[in-house]
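call fold(seq) -> C-alpha cells
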Amino acid sequence: MTIHFAFLFHIYQPPTQIPPVLKQIVNESYRPILETLNKYPSAKITLNINATLTEQLNDYGFNDVINSIGTLANRGQIEFTGSGKFHPLLPLLPEPEVIRQIKLNNETNKRFFGAYAPRGFFPPEMAVSEEIYDPIRKMGFDWVIMSGIANTLPVFPTDFISFHSNTSLKLVFRDDLISNDVGFNKINTIDHFVNRLNYRNIKKDYYVILAMDGETFGHHVKNGINKFLKPLFQSLEYRNDISMCTISEIIDKYPKKEPQVPKASSWSTMSFDLTQDNPFPLWLDKRNELHIELYRLIMFATTAVHLAAKYENSMDNEKKDIYRNARNFLDRGLHSCTQWWGSKRPWYSPDMILRGINEILLALINAKRSLPENAEGVKEVFESIMHGVLTSQNKIINAL
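ret:
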C-alpha cells in the first residue's frame, strides 16, 4: 500500500508590497525552498505563483528566484498552476474580469517561465463558487483545487477524482486538517507527518493533497525548512509507504467518477460560516460594514472602467494612455488583501486597506479623465458613480 501525497505551495505578494518585506521573504522562504528542492531531485511540488509576484521578483532584481523556479520546472520538480494575476477573489468579480485576470496571469508567467503550461488552476484563497467554473474551463484548464470544506459528496475523495457536474472540470480537495496542522507547525516531525497521512489505515492506495502558503516555510515558521522539509525530502528517497507526487500525477493515477457541485467557500471558511450563508468571511462578511463599503467601492471602479472602455476607439492618444492607466490600476486594485486586512478576524491594518483603496481611486479618476468630449451621455452616469464613491469612501475612513 502506498499513500500518494502532493504539496501545493502558493506564493504571492500584493502589488502594494514594500520592497524590504519582499526581500525578507525571498531570503527566508523562496530561496531556501528552491535550494532544498534542488538538493533533493526526487522531491516535487505543485506551485502557484501569482504573476504579480513574478513581476515584483523581476523588478527588484530577484532574477535568481525566477531562474531557479524555471529550472526546477524544466526538471519536472515543479508543476505550475494557473490563477488570477493580481490575486482577486474570483467569485466576487464579473466574468469578464475573471477571464482577464486569468489571461494576464498566463501571459506574464509564460514570459518569465519557459515551461509554464499549467493543467490545473488555483483560485486565489481557494475561493470558489458556481460562477467561476465555466470561465476556468473556457481558459483550457483540466482541474481546479479547493478547500476540503467545499466537498458535497458523502465521502471525501481519496481514491477517486470527483468532477464538476456542469463543466466536467476535475475537482481536487485539499485535506484541510493536515494542511493547517503543517502550516501552523503542529506537525513538524517525519513520524508525526507519516502517521497523519496514514489516517485511513487501510491496505489499498489512496491520496492526500496538502496546500498552504509557501511563505509558511522559513518566513512564518522559521524552522520549517531545516527541521521539516529537508528531513522529509531526504527520507522520501528511502521510503515506499508514501510517495510524493504533483497534483496532476495524482489525478492521472486515480479514476474519475462522482460528479458534484461544490459549496461556495474558501480555505478560510469555517462550517459555522456556511450555516450563516457567509462563504467568504474574510473578504465579504455581510456583518462587516468595512467589507460592504470596500466591495461597493470596487464595483464602482469596475463599472467606471468598463464604461470608459466603450469609448476607447474615439479617444485620442493622450486619452487612451489615461484609460490604460485606469485599466492597470483596476487590475492591481482587485487584489484580495485590501478586504482581508479589514476582516478583523483577527487581522486588521488600516495602512494596507488604504494602499488598496488608493489603487481603486486611481482607477476611478483615470477612467473619468479618459472620457472623450463626445461622451456626453455617460458623464452623468460618472457623476452618479463619483457621488457613490465619495459616500463609500467616507464610510470606510470613519470605520478605520
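The beta strands are 3-11, 45-49, 78-82, 120-121, 143-147, 161-164, 170-174, 206-213, 242-245, 256-260.
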